[in-house]
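TEACHING EXERCISE
Course module: macromolecular assemblies
Task: Read the component lines below, then compare them to the predicted structure of the full complex.
Student: A.B.
Group: 4
Components provided:
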Amino acid sequence: MELDRTTTALLAGLLDPANSKAWEVFDQRYRPILVGFARNCGLKDHDAAELAQATIVRFVEEYRDGRYDRERGRLGAWLVTIARYRMLDMRRRAGTARIERGESAMVDLDDEASVSEVYEAQRRRAVLAEALSELKSSSRTDPKTIQAFEMLVYHSVPVAAVASELGMSAHDVYLAKSRVAAKLREIVLRLENEYEEGPGDWASKGRRPSDGLGA
Amino acid sequence: MGDLSDETQAMQLPAGCGRFPREALELAALARTDPDVPIDERLAPHLVMCKRCTEAIDRFAADNAFLGEFKGIPAPTSRAPTVARTRPGADAGPAERDDAALIPGYRLGDEIHRGGQGAVYRAEQLATRRSCAVKMLLGGKFASDIQRMRFEREVEVVAALRHPSIVTLYESGISRSGEPWFAMELVDGERLDEHVRRLRLDARGVAKLMQQVADAIAYAHRRGVIHRDLKPGNILVDREGVPRILDFGLARADAPDAGSSPGSGTTLVGEFLGTFAYAAPEQLSGDPTAIDSRCDLYALGVVFYECLTGRRPFDGAKSIGELVIQKTMRTPERPSALVPGVDRDFDVIALRLLAADAANRYDTADALAEDLARALDGRPILAREDSKIYVLRRNLRRHWIATGAAAIVLATVVASSVALAIAYANAEQARARAESQLDAVLKALEESNPETGDGTSGMLATEFIASVEKSLEAALANEPADLARLLRSVGLIHLGFGNLADAATAIERAYAIESDAYARGEIDHITMSDSAYAVARVRFRVPSTGPNFAGSEQAYREAIRLRESATRPDDLHTIDLIRQLSSTLRRQMKLAEAEDTLRGAMARSARLPPSRERAIFDAAALNASAGIASDRGELQLALVEYQRALETLRPHVEANNFRIGVGLLNIARTKMQLDQWESALPDAEASLRILRERKGDRDEVTLRATNVVSEIRRVVEGRSTGGAANANGNGSP
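Instructor-supplied answer key:
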């Protein structure tokens, strides 16, 4: 039976330390998001990886302690709070604001909303990337359709040029575009459902996660 | 394509309603986010009415936005495309033109020309061994993918142009060093202005070349391509003497930030002054949405003027600011004043092209080509005829007929541009524009209606209306719903002028068209209600067969039913329709039903907050109520209600409003019936003054007022001289 990949199911699986599959999927899903998130918050690669590791570990601990309640806020919000406290702490420990930052955009860690936005953007990217790889590995999709899509979207090749390169009519190129859009939409929708992090439930009510300092 | 699921089979159906190819709709979708994407100019007016095409564009735009999200997402195994134009720059070394690999597939030869924006080389296309010209846009690297995409899409459209006077574009791409280039037909020729100078061409010779250029421009405009940078340097005359236009539609890709790029002082200013000389005032205004195909007509005007006279129209300007002021405020000297012997027709054509307001230029390059052909053949040119209208308009204004007629002239110009709505505009803007133009036409038409707008006096204005109607028919033959709306407005104006037969024809025709469209779900309840309302009004008054009150009643009921289904109970327009229904009932002598209907409408109005509109309604309802009282012989009550009606109206309209005139006439007539002749006279006289002013001498109501005044005067004068001129039937014994 195929693994239930919804966040709810993964969380249920996490409660059982022996369920290594749930852990694996959970980790595969959230670690890259957290790394990307940390990098976009200005951390260097090494720090970002460390932050992601610490955040996941902290989360699983709190979750197994029963401190995270899905009714009260979405998982992403909880992760962001843990990660943000940790980054603030790193900054404090650096004495001033002189923690080493990568070249990417600076985010004001004191502004919860913009930190959340960075996470959300990263999460959406993860969904899109997964959708893309699923589309490409799907045997049902004509390789030419995918090629047309890539030329159009990734390389901004004009329709006429795509058409002549792939030996299609311009009309078929447009069709291919619609077809890919429809398929990707379908996949993205399904993945978003698996994340169960629709818009609107960002604000965590009531309990907050710990400050992640292990206190 | 191997894989056709159900959903993709559905996609094989035509996108939109099928009138436009999918590509046109796709480009319109792209234009949503990139106003520079060219769109089919016939599409914009179509979209005003076509839900299916609008929805298709929405869908494509949503697809584009969604797919755009994937742009920065790493694609697992993205295969680099192999077409030349997108091959990523392998080395970013200096752009040596003799670097054979600079532009894959071409061998570059001598430099033919070098300007501020780029260099043109003689080149050979290796695969076909044909000679061509390659233009490199030096320093023209695209700042963004969007810009590059825009360039490439534009090239795509331009490359499809095939016209003997347009230099064919073969291909374009991005060089190894990142600069855009394009390969085009190699033309052996000289600049238009040099050609004219060298051969000392006379005005006719220049006009012949211009005619060919106009024809080519018209061809491109019909395909949605605007040149935007026409100047003598972009028009070469080849060895056969055929003018060939270069760099079509590439003006913007050519110089992505021409206005803002930092440059080297005076040279640059000079260069821009040169270019700006050909730019239409709206191009200099900095509002990209103001630019449409008519900017090319302006540029052609400058080129034509320059070729005729050897100088540009506003040669004296020292700065761009001064140039803009001159362009917008001044009319250049007539070419014939500078070069004796230039035909006056060419003066008219050149100055028409140079009109500061795009609306006063030719509407299309076709019209220009046609006029040049006429001038060359010695036939009367059309620009002349139009300028007659302008002269007429000025005269009309002088004779207080004023704005109404002027508005109609304006409407003629606007109406034709409705159908030609603006190419090169973002689809939504174009749509808003087409809509606002329609509205402008309607408004202009309404303003010319003596009952609702500023008054116009009869004859001339009706001729104008006929011409508007004709131009609408031609312009909107393929847009029945738009045509119907405008026909209806025209019909209502006819009605306002008392041209009942014309009004009936136009309005009933609009009604037939709109009934069909309504049955197809293409127009909404309100529009259909308005259509039925117009029919009701015209049937109420229709002359040849006598008023058709029953038909009018039926149409009013339809109008009311439709409106009730789409509006709230407090909709004053609906309430007023009910009042008017009451009038048709009264005319059919169904007095009780008329009164009930009227009271119902008045009760609904009484619940509304006070407003000008409500006051106008209340006055009309009081008048109707007075009319019913009068029918019943309750003259005293009728007089009181007529007077109340006038008092209700006065605070809200000008003293010489048409309605005041009618109200005074009603009062005067009732006073006559009540044998109050002396007091009736000033009312009748005031009424006549207003009606003459607002409706003209020949209007039916004015004539009635004239009769009333003379009758009253006869009686009053007879009385004051003690004579026995007893003209009335119900007066003293």
